[in-house]
């Protein structure tokens, strides 16, 4: 699944190559988005609200979602940051969703896609995203490092997604400031919150740690907090909610417990 999604992203980027100069100019001219990592440092576990119309595991979640209206609802409910899934084939997203979210809210935006090519990061910056997702499992550690450096050069923040100790090492080697542990195995698509509970405590206390996937209610936010997470990334449950303002509000406000500094 991950290989297929990354290959498809690479193909879409090949089509972007003709627009390279234009994208580089737009990226240089676009005002920097609001600070992403800094917005996640709250007294309570920060909620990253994701706009998610469909997924490979669930099929349709909320096919008719308006990215602008949904983003405004997340903001009203107390989300700290937005995650906008732009992947078109399997998640039903688009770049236009970023523009719609930007127009509707003042929150920092994470562009969620299978970013494997440098030009995709230039595009993310041109679109006005504050940050872009990098999935450690989809990238050779060398490429994770190079894309992380390119993002810094572009004044684009990143969220580096990991699932195990080896990927944590790769994220740290890439100097990732924000590290997300995905509870979903992107190969089997199964969710196991024990993944985040095991890996989040290993993330150095000076990084922002995000607990991703499988958060449906406050019980899961409590588990994230107990593991020491600074933020939760929530997609399906709040995208499908009849009242997304109330759904986000129900998750926001769990006190952050922090992580102990690593033993020397
Ligand atoms: O819908 P959920 O279980 O709340 O999960 C959200 C988010 O973590 C998930 O969409 C996600 C995590 N990593 C990704 C990488 C690509 C696409 C999607 C994702």
Largest sheet composition:
8 strands, parallel, barrel
Question: At CATH's second level, what is the architecture?
Answer: Alpha-Beta Barrel
Instruction: Give me the CATH fold name.
Output: TIM Barrel
In CATH's first tier, which class applies? Alpha Beta
**What structural category characterises the helix and strand content?**
alpha/beta
Number of domains: 1
User: Which percent band covers the strand fraction?
Assistant: 15-25%
**Cofactors and ligands:** indole-3-glycerol phosphate
Helix content: 40-55%
For the largest sheet, list the strands in their spatial order.
1-4-5-6-7-8-9-10
Shape, per Cα inertia axes = globular
Tally of helical runs: 11
Question: How many individual β-strands?
Answer: 10
Question: Whole-number radius of gyration?
Answer: 17 Å
First-last Cα distance: 38 Å
- Please tell me the overall pLDDT: 96
Low-confidence stretches: none
CATH homolog superfamily: Aldolase class I
SSE layout and pairing:
Layout: H1 2-16, H2 20-29, E1 46-51, E2 54-55, E3 59-60, H3 67-77, E4 81-85, H4 95-104, E5 109-112, H5 118-127, E6 131-135, H6 141-154, E7 157-162, H7 165-173, E8 178-182, H8 193-199, E9 208-212, H9 218-227, E10 231-234, H10 236-240, H11 244-251
Parallel strand pairs: 1-4, 1-10, 4-5, 5-6, 6-7, 7-8, 8-9, 9-10
Antiparallel strand pairs: 2-3
Helix pairs in contact: 2-5, 3-4, 3-11, 5-6, 8-9
The structure holds indole-3-glycerol phosphate.
Keywords: Amino-acid biosynthesis, Aromatic amino acid biosynthesis, Decarboxylase, Lyase, Tryptophan biosynthesis
Pathway: Amino-acid biosynthesis; L-tryptophan biosynthesis; L-tryptophan from chorismate: step 4/5
GO molecular function, one term: indole-3-glycerol-phosphate synthase activity
């Amino acid at each position: 699944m991950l290989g297929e999604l990354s290959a498809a992203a690479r193909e879409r980027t090949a089509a972007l190559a003709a627009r390279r100069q234009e994208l580089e100019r737009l990226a240089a001219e676009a005002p920097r988005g609001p600070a992403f990592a800094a917005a996640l440092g709250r007294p309570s576990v920060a909620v990253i609200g994701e706009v998610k119309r469909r997924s490979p595991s669930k099929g349709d979640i909320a096919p008719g979602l308006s990215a602008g209206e949904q983003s405004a609802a997340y903001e009203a409910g107390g989300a700290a940051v937005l995650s906008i899934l732009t992947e078109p084939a399997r998640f039903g997203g688009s770049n236009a969703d970023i523009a719609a979210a930007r127009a509707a809210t003042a929150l920092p935006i994470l562009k969620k896609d299978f970013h494997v090519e440098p030009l995709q990061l230039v595009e993310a910056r041109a679109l006005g995203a504050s940050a872009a997702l990098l999935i450690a499992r989809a990238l050779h550690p060398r490429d994770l490092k190079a894309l992380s450096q390119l993002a810094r050069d572009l004044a684009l923040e990143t969220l580096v997604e990991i699932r195990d100790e080896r990927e944590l090492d790769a994220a740290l080697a890439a100097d990732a400031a924000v590290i997300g542990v995905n509870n979903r195995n992107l190969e089997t698509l199964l969710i196991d919150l024990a993944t985040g509970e095991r890996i989040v405590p290993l993330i150095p206390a000076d990084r922002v740690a995000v607990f991703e996937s499988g958060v449906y209610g406050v019980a899961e936010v409590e588990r994230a907090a107990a593991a020491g997470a600074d933020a939760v990334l929530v997609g399906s449950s709040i995208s499908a909610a009849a009242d997304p303002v109330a759904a986000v509000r129900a998750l926001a406000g769990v006190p952050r417990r922090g992580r102990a500094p690593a033993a020397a």
